[in-house]
Amino acid sequence: VWVCWVCWVCLVFVWTGLVALPTYELYWSCSKIFATNFGLVMSRNRFEILLQMLHFSDNATADTTNRLYKLGTVMDDIMSNSNYCMQPLDKLCIDESLVKFMGRLSFKQYIKNKRDRFGIKEFKLCIPPCYTIALKVYAGKEAVVGDSVGTNIIMTLGDPYFDYGRTLYVDNWYSSVELAEKLKLRKTHLVGTIRSNRKSNPKEVIKKKLKKGEVDSMRSDTNVLILKWKDKRDLYMISTKHNSEMVEERVRGKIVKKPKVVIDYNIGKTSIDLSDQMISYSNPLRRSMKWYKKVALDGLL
After folding, report:
1. Whole-prediction pTM value?
2. In sequence order, what DSSP letters do the residues of 105-123 get, joined into one string?
């Protein structure tokens, strides 16, 4: 019986995202302006009691040294059950997303280029067109000996999907020559932007002065390509499946030449951007909710 009521609470949550009102109380309002059929599903008092009692782990037996103990196994359960019918093709994309949260939390993050900026960071593995097949909540302390945080995240999230000749698209926070060599051993290509100050970058390419439209590149003995292209600014790319080929592309009615690796990267990264865009249209999360309820509902959607 309780499982059924929890399902109804989740249904009501999804409904509040589709029919946006300022507060939860207004969904049970008798006013014609805010009239909904929420009262036919359950009363407001029952909804508030069930919402208050909604937990994902037993506090009495939980490992409180784990910062995410409040989530229990709900995130793993959501991912495992929602992926039964989904199998990646040739493209994978990993990037971070942010669940807005303004309260006090030891692992709350600030990301200046995100719309909400403050919240709980999640690492998402997406496939085209916008489906999330793996998700990891960041609670700090992800670094391991010999690997950066970005490398550890990629090897953890992507592990079930490596060894099949797929291509992984990442931005410059994750990418490095060492990561590309690790993925080659797992029969997986790496394509992404890369920071100019990464160790193992060829200095001949990084320091070379280029005019607008020019390109320079160098390939390592392990077949890792580092490419520098001058557009409005210097752009650095890494790839294990491209060369320095230039192709034409129509941009705002004009034909411009770009490296093929740049075009493929722009296409490969669209899945996670579209995923964030789709969830923003009907987001039911409210300011007064506990952080673990926000994260669980975000994963469910």
Report:
1. 0.87
2. -TT-EE-TTSSS-EEEEEE
